[in-house]
Amino acid sequence: MSDPVLLLGDRFQAALVLAFGPEHAGVDPAIRPSNHADFQANLALGLAKTLKKSPRDVAAAILAKLDGTGVVERTELAGPGFINIWLRAEFLSAEVARVAAAGTAGVEAHPTPERIVIDYSSPNVAKEMHVGHLRSSVIGDALARVLEALGHTVLRQNHLGDWGTPFGMLIEHLLDEGADADAHSIRDLNAFYQAARAKFDASPEFAARARVRVVSLQSGDEATLGFWRKLVEASRTHFNALYRLLGVTLKDEDIAGESLFNPMLGEVVSELESMGQCVENEGAKCVFVPGYVGRDDKPLPLIARKQDGGYGYAATDLAAIRYRLQTLNATRILYVVGAPQTQHLAMIRDAAIQAGWLALPARAEHVAFGSVLGEDGKVLRTRAGATVRLIELLEEGVERARSIVAEKAPELPIEQRDAIARAVGIGAIKYADLSSDRVKDYVFDWSRMLAFDGNTAPYLQYAHARICSILRKSNESVELASIAISEPQERVLALSLLAFPRALADVAESLSPHRLCGYLYDLATAFSAFYEHCPVLKAATPEVRRSRLLLSATTATVIARGLELLGIEAPEKM
Predict the structure, then answer these.
(1) 143 within some domain
(2) Claim to verify: residue 507 and residue 542 sit in the same structural domain
Protein backbone atom coordinates (compact mmCIF):
# COMPACT_ATOMS: atom_id res chain seq x y z
CA MET A 1 0.00 0.00 0.00
CA SER A 2 1.17 3.55 -0.73
CA ASP A 3 0.99 5.64 2.42
CA PRO A 4 -0.19 9.05 1.12
CA VAL A 5 2.14 10.91 3.47
CA LEU A 6 5.20 8.92 2.40
CA LEU A 7 4.21 9.17 -1.26
CA LEU A 8 3.68 12.93 -1.02
CA GLY A 9 6.94 13.26 0.90
CA ASP A 10 8.87 11.59 -1.93
CA ARG A 11 7.22 13.84 -4.51
CA PHE A 12 7.94 16.97 -2.52
CA GLN A 13 11.58 15.89 -2.18
CA ALA A 14 11.82 15.54 -5.96
CA ALA A 15 10.19 18.94 -6.47
CA LEU A 16 12.53 20.53 -3.94
CA VAL A 17 15.61 19.22 -5.75
CA LEU A 18 14.27 20.37 -9.12
CA ALA A 19 13.47 23.81 -7.75
CA PHE A 20 16.57 24.54 -5.67
CA GLY A 21 19.16 21.82 -6.29
CA PRO A 22 20.26 18.56 -4.59
CA GLU A 23 22.05 20.39 -1.78
CA HIS A 24 18.64 21.04 -0.21
CA ALA A 25 17.42 17.45 -0.40
CA GLY A 26 16.35 15.89 2.86
CA VAL A 27 14.36 18.83 4.22
CA ASP A 28 11.33 17.48 6.09
CA PRO A 29 8.19 18.43 4.11
CA ALA A 30 6.25 18.40 7.43
CA ILE A 31 3.14 16.93 5.82
CA ARG A 32 0.28 16.81 8.32
CA PRO A 33 -3.49 16.25 8.14
CA SER A 34 -5.33 19.57 7.81
CA ASN A 35 -8.75 20.95 8.62
CA HIS A 36 -8.71 22.89 5.35
CA ALA A 37 -7.55 20.13 3.01
CA ASP A 38 -6.52 16.48 3.10
CA PHE A 39 -2.96 17.44 4.05
CA GLN A 40 -0.82 20.51 4.52
CA ALA A 41 2.91 20.73 3.79
CA ASN A 42 5.18 23.17 5.60
CA LEU A 43 8.67 23.06 4.14
CA ALA A 44 8.89 26.57 2.73
CA LEU A 45 9.08 28.40 6.05
CA GLY A 46 12.25 26.60 7.12
CA LEU A 47 13.91 26.97 3.72
CA ALA A 48 13.14 30.65 3.26
CA LYS A 49 15.90 31.91 5.53
CA THR A 50 18.50 29.61 3.97
CA LEU A 51 17.48 30.59 0.44
CA LYS A 52 17.00 34.28 1.36
CA LYS A 53 13.60 34.27 -0.29
CA SER A 54 10.09 34.84 1.01
CA PRO A 55 8.32 31.65 2.18
CA ARG A 56 5.54 32.15 -0.36
CA ASP A 57 8.06 32.42 -3.21
CA VAL A 58 9.77 29.22 -2.01
CA ALA A 59 6.45 27.40 -1.76
CA ALA A 60 5.38 28.63 -5.20
CA ALA A 61 8.66 27.41 -6.75
CA ILE A 62 8.22 23.97 -5.20
CA LEU A 63 4.59 23.77 -6.33
CA ALA A 64 5.66 24.60 -9.88
CA LYS A 65 7.88 21.48 -9.91
CA LEU A 66 5.55 19.14 -7.96
CA ASP A 67 4.43 16.08 -9.91
CA GLY A 68 1.00 15.16 -8.60
CA THR A 69 0.14 12.74 -11.41
CA GLY A 70 -2.37 10.11 -10.33
CA VAL A 71 -2.34 11.26 -6.72
CA VAL A 72 -3.00 14.98 -6.28
CA GLU A 73 -6.29 16.53 -7.34
CA ARG A 74 -5.32 20.12 -6.57
CA THR A 75 -3.04 22.23 -4.41
CA GLU A 76 -3.26 25.67 -2.90
CA LEU A 77 -0.72 28.14 -1.62
CA ALA A 78 -1.97 29.36 1.76
CA GLY A 79 -0.89 31.80 4.46
CA PRO A 80 2.78 32.70 4.74
CA GLY A 81 3.92 29.64 2.74
CA PHE A 82 1.83 26.59 3.57
CA ILE A 83 0.81 24.21 0.80
CA ASN A 84 -2.66 22.64 1.03
CA ILE A 85 -3.10 19.35 -0.81
CA TRP A 86 -6.23 17.51 -1.92
CA LEU A 87 -5.87 13.91 -3.12
CA ARG A 88 -7.70 12.39 -6.08
CA ALA A 89 -10.78 10.41 -5.09
CA GLU A 90 -9.73 7.67 -7.53
CA PHE A 91 -6.38 7.33 -5.76
CA LEU A 92 -8.05 7.04 -2.35
CA SER A 93 -10.57 4.50 -3.68
CA ALA A 94 -7.85 2.32 -5.21
CA GLU A 95 -5.66 2.40 -2.10
CA VAL A 96 -8.48 1.51 0.30
CA ALA A 97 -9.57 -1.27 -2.06
CA ARG A 98 -6.00 -2.57 -1.99
CA VAL A 99 -6.07 -2.60 1.81
CA ALA A 100 -9.38 -4.47 1.79
CA ALA A 101 -8.12 -7.06 -0.69
CA ALA A 102 -4.79 -7.66 1.07
CA GLY A 103 -6.40 -8.59 4.39
CA THR A 104 -3.44 -7.16 6.34
CA ALA A 105 -5.03 -3.81 7.21
CA GLY A 106 -2.40 -2.25 4.95
CA VAL A 107 0.57 -3.14 7.16
CA GLU A 108 3.77 -4.21 5.42
CA ALA A 109 7.01 -5.60 6.86
CA HIS A 110 9.77 -3.14 7.68
CA PRO A 111 12.43 -3.11 4.92
CA THR A 112 15.25 -3.60 7.45
CA PRO A 113 13.90 -5.80 10.26
CA GLU A 114 15.74 -5.93 13.56
CA ARG A 115 16.24 -8.36 16.44
CA ILE A 116 14.58 -6.58 19.35
CA VAL A 117 14.82 -7.73 22.96
CA ILE A 118 12.02 -6.44 25.20
CA ASP A 119 12.49 -6.74 28.96
CA TYR A 120 9.06 -6.44 30.57
CA SER A 121 6.71 -7.55 33.36
CA SER A 122 9.49 -8.97 35.59
CA PRO A 123 7.62 -9.88 38.81
CA ASN A 124 9.33 -11.37 41.85
CA VAL A 125 9.14 -15.07 42.67
CA ALA A 126 7.20 -15.94 45.86
CA LYS A 127 5.29 -12.66 45.67
CA GLU A 128 1.86 -11.98 44.21
CA MET A 129 1.69 -9.71 41.20
CA HIS A 130 0.13 -6.38 42.12
CA VAL A 131 -1.08 -3.26 40.33
CA GLY A 132 2.53 -2.07 40.08
CA HIS A 133 3.18 -4.85 37.54
CA LEU A 134 0.29 -3.79 35.29
CA ARG A 135 1.99 -1.06 33.30
CA SER A 136 5.19 -2.95 32.47
CA SER A 137 3.19 -6.01 31.43
CA VAL A 138 0.67 -4.31 29.14
CA ILE A 139 2.99 -1.65 27.66
CA GLY A 140 5.72 -4.21 26.98
CA ASP A 141 3.29 -6.65 25.42
CA ALA A 142 1.71 -4.01 23.17
CA LEU A 143 5.16 -2.95 21.92
CA ALA A 144 6.10 -6.59 21.30
CA ARG A 145 2.93 -7.14 19.25
CA VAL A 146 3.36 -3.96 17.19
CA LEU A 147 7.04 -4.60 16.45
CA GLU A 148 6.28 -8.19 15.40
CA ALA A 149 3.48 -6.94 13.14
CA LEU A 150 6.06 -4.74 11.40
CA GLY A 151 8.25 -7.76 10.67
CA HIS A 152 10.84 -7.45 13.43
CA THR A 153 12.07 -10.47 15.38
CA VAL A 154 11.00 -9.86 18.96
CA LEU A 155 12.66 -11.70 21.85
CA ARG A 156 10.60 -11.35 25.01
CA GLN A 157 12.57 -11.41 28.27
CA ASN A 158 10.67 -11.81 31.53
CA HIS A 159 13.43 -10.82 33.97
CA LEU A 160 12.04 -12.52 37.08
CA GLY A 161 13.39 -11.63 40.50
CA ASP A 162 14.28 -15.24 41.37
CA TRP A 163 17.70 -15.10 43.04
CA GLY A 164 19.65 -13.65 45.93
CA THR A 165 19.11 -12.77 49.59
CA PRO A 166 15.27 -12.92 49.57
CA PHE A 167 15.41 -16.64 48.83
CA GLY A 168 17.81 -17.32 51.63
CA MET A 169 15.33 -15.66 54.01
CA LEU A 170 12.29 -17.41 52.56
CA ILE A 171 13.78 -20.90 52.43
CA GLU A 172 15.18 -20.67 55.93
CA HIS A 173 11.84 -19.43 57.30
CA LEU A 174 9.88 -22.17 55.54
CA LEU A 175 12.25 -24.75 57.04
CA ASP A 176 11.80 -23.21 60.49
CA GLU A 177 8.04 -23.53 60.09
CA GLY A 178 8.23 -27.07 58.72
CA ALA A 179 6.41 -25.92 55.57
CA ASP A 180 6.73 -27.27 52.06
CA ALA A 181 6.79 -24.76 49.20
CA ASP A 182 4.75 -26.84 46.78
CA ALA A 183 1.97 -27.33 49.34
CA HIS A 184 1.12 -23.64 49.45
CA SER A 185 -0.52 -21.12 47.16
CA ILE A 186 1.18 -17.94 46.07
CA ARG A 187 -0.81 -16.05 48.73
CA ASP A 188 0.65 -18.33 51.39
CA LEU A 189 4.15 -17.74 50.03
CA ASN A 190 3.51 -14.00 49.96
CA ALA A 191 2.64 -14.10 53.65
CA PHE A 192 5.65 -16.34 54.38
CA TYR A 193 7.90 -13.85 52.62
CA GLN A 194 6.58 -10.95 54.71
CA ALA A 195 7.12 -12.96 57.88
CA ALA A 196 10.63 -13.92 56.74
CA ARG A 197 11.47 -10.29 56.05
CA ALA A 198 10.32 -9.26 59.52
CA LYS A 199 12.32 -12.06 61.13
CA PHE A 200 15.41 -11.16 59.07
CA ASP A 201 15.24 -7.55 60.30
CA ALA A 202 14.60 -8.51 63.91
CA SER A 203 16.85 -11.53 64.47
CA PRO A 204 20.61 -11.38 63.82
CA GLU A 205 20.77 -15.16 64.29
CA PHE A 206 18.13 -15.77 61.61
CA ALA A 207 19.76 -13.19 59.32
CA ALA A 208 23.07 -15.06 59.60
CA ARG A 209 21.40 -18.38 58.74
CA ALA A 210 19.62 -16.77 55.79
CA ARG A 211 22.91 -15.46 54.42
CA VAL A 212 24.46 -18.92 54.73
CA ARG A 213 21.45 -20.30 52.87
CA VAL A 214 22.06 -17.79 50.06
CA VAL A 215 25.63 -19.04 49.77
CA SER A 216 24.31 -22.61 49.60
CA LEU A 217 21.94 -21.58 46.83
CA GLN A 218 24.61 -19.77 44.83
CA SER A 219 27.10 -22.63 45.24
CA GLY A 220 24.59 -25.15 43.87
CA ASP A 221 23.63 -27.10 47.01
CA GLU A 222 21.08 -29.57 45.65
CA ALA A 223 18.74 -29.56 48.65
CA THR A 224 18.56 -25.79 48.63
CA LEU A 225 18.13 -25.71 44.85
CA GLY A 226 15.28 -28.21 45.14
CA PHE A 227 13.45 -25.94 47.54
CA TRP A 228 14.14 -22.95 45.28
CA ARG A 229 12.74 -24.77 42.23
CA LYS A 230 9.46 -25.40 44.07
CA LEU A 231 9.17 -21.70 44.87
CA VAL A 232 9.79 -20.79 41.25
CA GLU A 233 7.26 -23.33 39.99
CA ALA A 234 4.51 -22.15 42.37
CA SER A 235 5.15 -18.57 41.29
CA ARG A 236 5.26 -19.42 37.60
CA THR A 237 1.82 -21.04 37.86
CA HIS A 238 0.50 -17.82 39.39
CA PHE A 239 2.15 -15.60 36.76
CA ASN A 240 0.88 -17.69 33.85
CA ALA A 241 -2.70 -17.64 35.12
CA LEU A 242 -2.57 -13.85 35.34
CA TYR A 243 -0.96 -13.49 31.92
CA ARG A 244 -3.74 -15.59 30.37
CA LEU A 245 -6.44 -13.49 32.04
CA LEU A 246 -4.67 -10.25 31.12
CA GLY A 247 -4.06 -11.35 27.53
CA VAL A 248 -0.29 -11.01 27.79
CA THR A 249 1.77 -13.18 25.42
CA LEU A 250 4.61 -14.06 27.82
CA LYS A 251 5.35 -17.82 28.02
CA ASP A 252 7.64 -20.01 30.13
CA GLU A 253 10.27 -19.93 27.40
CA ASP A 254 10.45 -16.13 27.77
CA ILE A 255 11.61 -16.34 31.39
CA ALA A 256 15.11 -14.93 31.77
CA GLY A 257 15.34 -14.42 35.52
CA GLU A 258 18.23 -13.27 37.62
CA SER A 259 19.21 -16.91 38.11
CA LEU A 260 19.98 -17.24 34.39
CA PHE A 261 22.80 -14.73 34.73
CA ASN A 262 24.26 -16.02 38.02
CA PRO A 263 26.87 -18.28 36.32
CA MET A 264 28.01 -15.33 34.17
CA LEU A 265 28.68 -12.81 36.93
CA GLY A 266 32.25 -13.77 37.75
CA GLU A 267 33.18 -13.83 34.07
CA VAL A 268 31.62 -10.41 33.50
CA VAL A 269 33.56 -8.86 36.39
CA SER A 270 36.80 -10.47 35.20
CA GLU A 271 36.25 -9.16 31.67
CA LEU A 272 35.57 -5.65 32.91
CA GLU A 273 38.68 -5.80 35.15
CA SER A 274 40.84 -6.89 32.22
CA MET A 275 39.61 -3.83 30.30
CA GLY A 276 40.37 -1.56 33.22
CA GLN A 277 36.66 -0.76 33.49
CA CYS A 278 36.17 -2.39 36.90
CA VAL A 279 38.29 -1.17 39.79
CA GLU A 280 38.42 -1.74 43.53
CA ASN A 281 36.72 0.89 45.65
CA GLU A 282 36.34 0.51 49.43
CA GLY A 283 36.70 -3.26 49.09
CA ALA A 284 34.11 -3.61 46.32
CA LYS A 285 34.62 -4.02 42.59
CA CYS A 286 33.04 -1.02 40.87
CA VAL A 287 32.42 0.33 37.40
CA PHE A 288 32.53 4.13 37.15
CA VAL A 289 30.79 5.78 34.21
CA PRO A 290 31.72 9.42 33.54
CA GLY A 291 28.95 11.91 34.15
CA TYR A 292 27.22 10.18 37.06
CA VAL A 293 27.64 11.56 40.57
CA GLY A 294 25.87 11.01 43.88
CA ARG A 295 24.37 13.53 46.26
CA ASP A 296 27.84 14.19 47.67
CA ASP A 297 29.05 15.07 44.15
CA LYS A 298 31.38 12.07 44.21
CA PRO A 299 31.48 9.67 41.23
CA LEU A 300 28.60 7.20 41.46
CA PRO A 301 29.62 3.54 41.09
CA LEU A 302 27.91 0.51 39.64
CA ILE A 303 28.85 -2.14 42.21
CA ALA A 304 29.80 -5.19 40.16
CA ARG A 305 30.91 -7.23 43.19
CA LYS A 306 30.20 -6.35 46.80
CA GLN A 307 32.71 -6.22 49.65
CA ASP A 308 31.68 -9.69 50.84
CA GLY A 309 32.24 -11.16 47.39
CA GLY A 310 28.53 -11.34 46.54
CA TYR A 311 26.85 -9.84 43.51
CA GLY A 312 24.02 -7.33 43.39
CA TYR A 313 21.48 -6.33 40.77
CA ALA A 314 23.97 -4.05 38.96
CA ALA A 315 26.14 -7.08 38.19
CA THR A 316 23.08 -9.00 36.99
CA ASP A 317 22.02 -6.14 34.73
CA LEU A 318 25.53 -5.84 33.27
CA ALA A 319 25.53 -9.57 32.57
CA ALA A 320 22.04 -9.30 31.04
CA ILE A 321 22.90 -6.54 28.57
CA ARG A 322 26.07 -8.37 27.55
CA TYR A 323 24.08 -11.61 27.05
CA ARG A 324 21.40 -9.86 25.01
CA LEU A 325 23.95 -8.26 22.72
CA GLN A 326 26.44 -11.11 22.34
CA THR A 327 24.26 -14.22 22.67
CA LEU A 328 20.83 -13.04 21.55
CA ASN A 329 22.41 -10.72 18.96
CA ALA A 330 19.97 -7.91 19.69
CA THR A 331 20.14 -4.75 17.61
CA ARG A 332 17.68 -2.97 19.88
CA ILE A 333 17.03 -3.56 23.59
CA LEU A 334 13.95 -2.11 25.28
CA TYR A 335 13.63 -1.95 29.06
CA VAL A 336 9.96 -1.47 29.97
CA VAL A 337 10.68 -0.41 33.53
CA GLY A 338 9.30 2.33 35.82
CA ALA A 339 10.69 5.84 35.66
CA PRO A 340 12.51 5.59 39.05
CA GLN A 341 15.07 3.29 37.39
CA THR A 342 16.03 5.91 34.79
CA GLN A 343 19.50 6.69 36.15
CA HIS A 344 20.38 3.06 36.87
CA LEU A 345 19.45 1.89 33.37
CA ALA A 346 21.28 4.83 31.79
CA MET A 347 24.40 3.82 33.73
CA ILE A 348 24.04 0.19 32.60
CA ARG A 349 23.70 1.36 28.98
CA ASP A 350 26.68 3.70 29.20
CA ALA A 351 28.79 1.06 30.97
CA ALA A 352 28.01 -1.35 28.10
CA ILE A 353 29.08 1.31 25.60
CA GLN A 354 32.24 1.96 27.61
CA ALA A 355 33.02 -1.78 27.60
CA GLY A 356 32.51 -1.99 23.84
CA TRP A 357 29.56 -4.39 24.13
CA LEU A 358 27.01 -1.86 22.88
CA ALA A 359 27.91 -0.14 19.65
CA LEU A 360 25.83 1.39 16.86
CA PRO A 361 23.64 0.44 15.13
CA ALA A 362 22.64 -1.50 18.28
CA ARG A 363 21.08 0.60 21.02
CA ALA A 364 19.43 0.18 24.40
CA GLU A 365 16.39 2.27 25.34
CA HIS A 366 14.52 2.76 28.59
CA VAL A 367 10.75 2.68 28.04
CA ALA A 368 9.93 4.53 31.24
CA PHE A 369 6.44 4.88 32.66
CA GLY A 370 4.67 6.62 35.52
CA SER A 371 2.46 5.26 38.30
CA VAL A 372 -1.17 4.19 38.58
CA LEU A 373 -2.87 6.60 40.97
CA GLY A 374 -6.04 6.43 43.00
CA GLU A 375 -8.64 9.20 42.99
CA ASP A 376 -6.71 10.84 45.85
CA GLY A 377 -3.77 11.40 43.53
CA LYS A 378 -1.57 8.94 45.41
CA VAL A 379 -0.30 5.52 44.29
CA LEU A 380 -3.33 3.23 43.98
CA ARG A 381 -3.93 1.20 47.15
CA THR A 382 -6.77 -0.59 48.90
CA ARG A 383 -8.88 1.28 51.45
CA ALA A 384 -6.81 -0.39 54.14
CA GLY A 385 -3.67 1.05 52.55
CA ALA A 386 -2.38 -2.25 51.18
CA THR A 387 -1.00 -2.88 47.70
CA VAL A 388 -3.77 -3.77 45.24
CA ARG A 389 -3.48 -7.39 44.09
CA LEU A 390 -3.56 -7.58 40.30
CA ILE A 391 -5.87 -10.60 40.23
CA GLU A 392 -8.46 -8.75 42.34
CA LEU A 393 -8.26 -5.72 40.06
CA LEU A 394 -8.84 -7.82 36.93
CA GLU A 395 -11.66 -9.82 38.50
CA GLU A 396 -13.39 -6.63 39.59
CA GLY A 397 -13.12 -5.25 36.07
CA VAL A 398 -14.77 -8.37 34.62
CA GLU A 399 -17.51 -8.30 37.25
CA ARG A 400 -18.30 -4.63 36.62
CA ALA A 401 -18.38 -5.29 32.86
CA ARG A 402 -20.67 -8.29 33.40
CA SER A 403 -23.32 -6.01 34.91
CA ILE A 404 -23.04 -3.56 32.02
CA VAL A 405 -23.23 -6.28 29.34
CA ALA A 406 -26.22 -7.94 31.03
CA GLU A 407 -28.04 -4.60 30.92
CA LYS A 408 -27.13 -3.79 27.31
CA ALA A 409 -27.56 -7.26 25.78
CA PRO A 410 -29.87 -9.37 27.98
CA GLU A 411 -30.94 -11.43 24.97
CA LEU A 412 -27.50 -13.04 24.56
CA PRO A 413 -26.80 -16.47 26.09
CA ILE A 414 -25.08 -16.22 29.47
CA GLU A 415 -21.90 -17.92 28.17
CA GLN A 416 -21.62 -15.30 25.43
CA ARG A 417 -22.29 -12.48 27.89
CA ASP A 418 -19.53 -13.82 30.14
CA ALA A 419 -17.06 -13.91 27.24
CA ILE A 420 -17.97 -10.34 26.26
CA ALA A 421 -17.70 -9.20 29.89
CA ARG A 422 -14.20 -10.63 30.08
CA ALA A 423 -13.20 -8.87 26.84
CA VAL A 424 -14.74 -5.57 27.95
CA GLY A 425 -13.52 -5.64 31.57
CA ILE A 426 -9.93 -6.64 30.81
CA GLY A 427 -9.87 -4.46 27.71
CA ALA A 428 -11.05 -1.43 29.67
CA ILE A 429 -8.24 -1.80 32.22
CA LYS A 430 -5.56 -2.29 29.58
CA TYR A 431 -6.78 0.50 27.32
CA ALA A 432 -6.99 3.01 30.19
CA ASP A 433 -3.32 2.30 30.82
CA LEU A 434 -2.19 2.20 27.18
CA SER A 435 -4.15 5.28 26.10
CA SER A 436 -2.32 7.39 28.68
CA ASP A 437 1.03 8.87 27.75
CA ARG A 438 3.26 6.25 29.40
CA VAL A 439 5.69 8.75 30.89
CA LYS A 440 2.92 10.29 32.97
CA ASP A 441 0.99 9.03 36.00
CA TYR A 442 -2.71 8.37 35.43
CA VAL A 443 -5.73 8.10 37.71
CA PHE A 444 -7.50 4.73 37.83
CA ASP A 445 -11.20 5.53 37.33
CA TRP A 446 -13.69 2.69 36.78
CA SER A 447 -16.49 4.93 35.50
CA ARG A 448 -14.29 6.52 32.85
CA MET A 449 -12.57 3.37 31.62
CA LEU A 450 -15.83 1.37 31.33
CA ALA A 451 -17.72 4.16 29.55
CA PHE A 452 -19.14 3.44 26.10
CA ASP A 453 -18.31 6.94 24.89
CA GLY A 454 -15.01 8.78 24.70
CA ASN A 455 -11.57 7.35 24.13
CA THR A 456 -12.14 3.98 25.85
CA ALA A 457 -11.89 0.32 24.95
CA PRO A 458 -15.68 -0.24 25.27
CA TYR A 459 -16.28 2.59 22.76
CA LEU A 460 -13.93 0.98 20.22
CA GLN A 461 -15.24 -2.52 20.91
CA TYR A 462 -18.81 -1.33 20.46
CA ALA A 463 -17.88 0.47 17.21
CA HIS A 464 -16.43 -2.78 15.90
CA ALA A 465 -19.47 -4.80 17.02
CA ARG A 466 -21.82 -2.27 15.41
CA ILE A 467 -20.03 -2.59 12.08
CA CYS A 468 -20.18 -6.38 12.35
CA SER A 469 -23.94 -6.07 12.92
CA ILE A 470 -24.29 -3.92 9.78
CA LEU A 471 -22.39 -6.51 7.75
CA ARG A 472 -24.53 -9.35 9.10
CA LYS A 473 -27.72 -7.47 8.26
CA SER A 474 -26.53 -6.81 4.72
CA ASN A 475 -26.19 -10.54 4.08
CA GLU A 476 -23.99 -9.61 1.16
CA SER A 477 -20.46 -10.47 0.09
CA VAL A 478 -18.42 -7.39 -0.77
CA GLU A 479 -15.10 -9.05 -1.55
CA LEU A 480 -15.29 -8.09 -5.23
CA ALA A 481 -16.90 -4.70 -4.67
CA SER A 482 -15.21 -1.50 -5.80
CA ILE A 483 -14.95 1.62 -3.67
CA ALA A 484 -16.15 5.02 -4.83
CA ILE A 485 -15.28 8.08 -2.75
CA SER A 486 -17.72 10.93 -3.30
CA GLU A 487 -18.92 12.30 0.06
CA PRO A 488 -16.66 14.30 2.43
CA GLN A 489 -17.21 11.74 5.23
CA GLU A 490 -16.12 8.91 2.92
CA ARG A 491 -12.95 10.84 2.12
CA VAL A 492 -12.15 11.42 5.81
CA LEU A 493 -12.75 7.73 6.58
CA ALA A 494 -10.58 6.60 3.67
CA LEU A 495 -7.72 8.88 4.74
CA SER A 496 -8.01 7.55 8.29
CA LEU A 497 -7.86 3.93 7.10
CA LEU A 498 -4.74 4.62 5.04
CA ALA A 499 -3.01 6.14 8.09
CA PHE A 500 -2.92 2.83 10.03
CA PRO A 501 0.58 1.74 8.92
CA ARG A 502 1.88 5.20 9.75
CA ALA A 503 0.36 4.96 13.23
CA LEU A 504 2.15 1.65 13.85
CA ALA A 505 5.44 3.05 12.56
CA ASP A 506 5.00 5.97 14.95
CA VAL A 507 4.51 3.57 17.89
CA ALA A 508 7.59 1.57 16.87
CA GLU A 509 9.70 4.73 16.76
CA SER A 510 8.33 6.57 19.79
CA LEU A 511 7.58 3.43 21.86
CA SER A 512 4.33 5.12 22.87
CA PRO A 513 1.24 2.87 22.54
CA HIS A 514 -1.09 5.78 23.33
CA ARG A 515 -0.52 6.99 19.78
CA LEU A 516 -2.14 3.83 18.41
CA CYS A 517 -5.03 4.33 20.86
CA GLY A 518 -5.47 7.88 19.61
CA TYR A 519 -5.45 6.69 16.02
CA LEU A 520 -8.11 4.04 16.68
CA TYR A 521 -10.32 6.56 18.46
CA ASP A 522 -10.03 8.96 15.54
CA LEU A 523 -10.86 6.14 13.11
CA ALA A 524 -13.94 5.09 15.10
CA THR A 525 -15.04 8.74 15.27
CA ALA A 526 -14.57 9.08 11.49
CA PHE A 527 -16.69 5.98 10.94
CA SER A 528 -19.42 7.32 13.22
CA ALA A 529 -19.60 10.53 11.13
CA PHE A 530 -19.56 8.47 7.91
CA TYR A 531 -22.37 6.22 9.13
CA GLU A 532 -24.47 9.20 10.22
CA HIS A 533 -24.19 11.06 6.90
CA CYS A 534 -23.76 8.22 4.38
CA PRO A 535 -26.55 5.59 4.38
CA VAL A 536 -25.05 2.12 4.07
CA LEU A 537 -27.83 -0.47 3.98
CA LYS A 538 -30.23 2.07 2.45
CA ALA A 539 -27.77 3.58 -0.02
CA ALA A 540 -29.18 5.12 -3.19
CA THR A 541 -27.83 2.43 -5.55
CA PRO A 542 -26.53 -1.15 -5.22
CA GLU A 543 -23.06 0.04 -6.27
CA VAL A 544 -22.93 2.71 -3.56
CA ARG A 545 -24.27 0.21 -1.02
CA ARG A 546 -21.49 -2.28 -1.84
CA SER A 547 -18.86 0.47 -1.77
CA ARG A 548 -19.96 1.63 1.67
CA LEU A 549 -20.22 -1.92 2.95
CA LEU A 550 -16.62 -2.49 1.87
CA LEU A 551 -15.53 0.73 3.58
CA SER A 552 -17.33 -0.48 6.70
CA ALA A 553 -15.78 -3.95 6.55
CA THR A 554 -12.30 -2.49 6.11
CA THR A 555 -12.86 -0.22 9.10
CA ALA A 556 -13.88 -3.23 11.21
CA THR A 557 -10.74 -5.06 10.11
CA VAL A 558 -8.47 -2.17 11.05
CA ILE A 559 -10.15 -1.57 14.42
CA ALA A 560 -9.94 -5.29 15.28
CA ARG A 561 -6.31 -5.46 14.19
CA GLY A 562 -5.41 -2.33 16.13
CA LEU A 563 -7.06 -3.62 19.29
CA GLU A 564 -5.33 -6.98 18.82
CA LEU A 565 -1.97 -5.21 18.71
CA LEU A 566 -2.88 -3.59 22.02
CA GLY A 567 -3.73 -7.04 23.38
CA ILE A 568 -7.48 -6.29 23.50
CA GLU A 569 -10.28 -8.47 22.12
CA ALA A 570 -12.84 -7.13 19.64
CA PRO A 571 -16.15 -9.03 20.09
CA GLU A 572 -18.47 -9.23 17.09
CA LYS A 573 -21.53 -8.81 19.32
CA MET A 574 -22.07 -6.55 22.31
Answers:
(1) no
(2) yes
Provide the residue-wise pLDDT of the chain in tens; the chain has 574 residues.
Answer: 468 998 999 999 999 999 999 988 888 899 999 888 999 999 888 888 888 999 999 999 999 999 999 999 999 999 999 999 999 999 999 999 988 888 778 888 889 999 999 999 999 998 889 999 999 999 999 999 999 999 999 999 999 999 888 888 888 888 888 766 555 566 677 788 888 889 999 999 999 999 889 888 888 889 899 889 988 998 999 999 999 999 999 999 999 999 999 999 999 999 999 999 999 988 899 999 999 998 888 899 999 998 878 788 899 999 999 999 999 999 999 999 999 999 999 999 999 999 999 999 999 999 999 999 998 888 888 777 778 899 999 999 999 999 999 998 899 999 999 999 999 999 999 999 999 999 999 999 999 999 999 999 999 999 999 999 999 999 888 776 789 999 999 999 999 999 999 999 999 999 999 999 999 999 999 999 999 999 999 999 999 999 999 999 999 999 999 999 999 999 999 9
Is the whole model's pTM more than 0.85, yes or no? yes
- For the chain, the distance separating the N- and C-terminal CA atoms, rounded to the nearest angstrom, is 32
- The closest of 1, 18, 9, 66 to 39, measured between CA atoms, is 9
Are residue 226 and residue 266 in the same domain, yes or no?
no
Q: Of the candidates 450, 433, 451, which has an alpha carbon nearest to the alpha carbon of residue 442?
A: 433
Same domain, 355 and 284: yes
Amino acid at 222: E
Judged by DSSP in three states, 460 sits in helix
The CA dihedral of 409, 413, 418, 420, to the nearest 10 degrees, is: -50
Does any domain span residue 140? Answer: no
For residue 108, give every residue at least 6 positions away whose Cβ sits within 8 Å of its Cβ, in sequence order, or none.
1, 151, 501
User: How many domains does one find in the chain?
Assistant: 4
User: Which of 313, 338, 365 is the last residue in one of the domains?
Assistant: 365
Residue 52 lies in a domain: yes
Residue 397's Cα: distance from chain center in Å? 21
On whether the CB atoms of residues 259 and 314 are closer than 8 A, the answer is: no
Alpha helices in 248-341 (DSSP H): 258-261, 265-274, 313-326
Q: Alpha-carbon distance 519 to 522, whole Å?
A: 5
CATH number at residue 541: 1.10.730.10
Rounded CA-CA distance 168/62 in Å is 71
Write down which residue in 87, 110, 130 finishes a domain.
87
* Domain presence at residue 196: yes
Q: Do 266 and 342 fall into the same domain?
A: yes
Residues 193 and 273 both lie in one domain? no
Cα gap 168→155, rounded to integer Å: 31
**What is the C-alpha separation between 216 and 223, in angstroms, rounded?**
9
- Closest-CA residue to 335 (of 346, 322, 319, 350): 346
The answer on 283 and 230 residing in a single domain is: no
Cite the DSSP H helix spans in 150-254: 165-177, 186-202, 204-218, 222-246
Q: Are residues 223 and 288 in the same domain?
A: no
- CATH code at position 73: 3.30.1360.70
| Containing structural domain, residue 307 | 260-365
Closest residue by Cα to residue 547 from 22, 96, 64, 40: 96
Query: Are 509 and 546 within one domain?
Result: yes
